[in-house]
Every structure is written in structure tokens, then in C-alpha cells.
Design brief:
Length: about 240
């Protein structure tokens, strides 16, 4: 598969390694210094899928540029979700292809499933208060993180006594921390914690490449739920 990278920071470089290890080719790299390459022959004629990890203020415009050129997109940037409904509408009406996840790590997505199940169970135990904490590197602009928002949405969905305004989320930005997310339930008697800690960016990069493989040749709006449905029903090489 021929992949274009939009954004070539630490995450973009890690995705490049993961893609090459899985036998793919990087045909175009577009970063802040060469936005004109959206119209380069390499991008327009050779790209099967673009993987985008940039900044919240530029992500939506990058997606629209890809759509205008009929390039499928794997979206890795968070903090732009006010445009998500519009992106879904474009995919439906124009047969575009888009994959969005708040976090591409397979481990984090298993953590999401655990969080949902625990929230369903905790709905029956009002003596437990719930709170969250997330820690990321100092370069991350959005807070809370997209991953924390996904965790919070699942908690609010399944616990009747919570809502987005009252669920405490503590966001910290420290050093070069790849990402730590923790959900805590506490009563007068005890405390329950579930936690995911990323050791590096490798899991995110692999997940983004797997998402690109997943949407290759497809049209529509896709998420990790679609991806996990496929790998649960078929034997997929990860």
C-alpha cells in the first residue's frame, strides 16, 4: 500500500517506521513547510491512504484537502471534534473514506472496553464516586485528551448519576510522557483503579497503520468499533 504522511513530527516518524516494517511504501510526506505538496504528483497520483497527525487548528482543513483530491484519510489528531458530524456527512454524501479514533493503540481500545464494562457494573453502586486523571507530554495542546473524553463519554453513558459537567477529569502535562489514563472509583470503604500507561508511541503508530490497511478500498466513515468487529470475526494478522 502507498501511504502519504501528513505531519512529520515524532508521531509521523514512528508511523513511517511501522508502515515500512509492514511492507508499505511512503510516497509523500507533507508537513508545515510544504503544504503545496497536497497538489504534488506523488500525493495526487500515488496515494492509497493518507495518515494525518498534525495539530487541532490545521487538522480539519487537511481532511478537506484530502477529500477534494479523493484521498482516504486516517485521522490521528484530536481537539477538532466540533467538525466530526460534518466529516461524517461528507463521507455519506460524497463517498469519501475516513477513519477516526481518539486513540489508535490496541491496548487503549481494550482499556475502553474494560472501562465500559466497569461503568455498567458501577451504575448499581451509588456509594462509589468516579473521577479520572490523564497525563501527557508538555507538547500536547488539547486537554482533556481525546482518549480521556472517550473514557468520560462511556462513563456518562452507563452511569446514571454522572454527566460531563460533574465528572472530574484532572489533566496534567509533564515532560515527555506518552500518555497515562486512569479511572478511579472510590467509596468510604475502598477504591478501585483501572489504568493504561503507554510506554512509547509504537502502539499508536501500529494502530494507525492497521487502520489504513482496514480502509484500503473502502468508502465511508469508520471507527475502532468497525475495526474490532472485523478482527473479532476474522483472523487478521496484527
Amino acid at each position: 500500500m502507498k501511504i502519504a504522511l501528513i505531519g512529520y513530527g515524532k508521531m509521523g516518524r514512528e508511523i513511517e517506521k511501522a508502515a515500512l516494517e509492514r511492507g508499505h511504501e511512503i510516497v509523500s510526506i507533507i508537513d508545515i513547510d510544504n503544504p503545496e505538496d497536497f497538489d504534488s504528483p506523488a500525493f495526487l497520483r500515488s496515494t492509497d491512504v493518507a495518515i494525518e497527525f498534525t495539530r487541532p487548528e490545521s487538522a480539519y482543513a487537511n481532511y478537506r484537502k484530502c477529500f477534494e483530491r479523493h484521498i482516504p484519510v486516517v485521522a490521528g489528531t484530536t481537539g477538532w471534534l466540533k467538525h466530526l458530524d460534518e466529516i461524517e456527512k461528507i463521507c455519506r454524501e460524497q463517498s469519501q473514506t475516513f477513519f477516526y479514533a481518539s486513540n489508535y493503540s490496541l491496548g487503549v481500545n481494550l482499556f475502553f472496553a474494560l472501562n465500559r464494562q466497569l461503568a455498567k457494573m458501577m451504575n448499581r453502586f451509588p456509594e462509589y464516586d468516579v473521577r479520572m486523571e490523564e497525563i501527557h507530554h508538555i507538547h500536547k495542546l488539547d486537554a482533556p485528551s481525546g482518549t480521556a473524553i472517550t473514557l468520560a463519554e462511556d462513563i456518562v453513558k452507563h452511569i446514571d448519576r454522572t454527566n460531563r459537567d460533574t465528572l472530574p477529569i484532572e489533566s496534567k502535562r509533564e515532560g515527555e510522557v506518552p500518555g497515562i489514563h486512569e479511572v478511579v472509583y472510590e467509596s468510604d470503604a475502598d477504591m478501585i483503579r483501572i489504568r493504561h500507561e503507554a510506554k512509547n508511541r509504537k502502539g499508536l503508530a501500529l494502530g494507525a497503520v492497521l487502520a489504513a490497511e482496514f480502509i484500503y478500498g473502502k468508502a465511508g466513515f469508520f471507527t475502532m468499533d468497525d475495526f474490532f468487529t472485523i478482527i473479532n470475526n476474522f483472523k487478521i494478522q496484527l
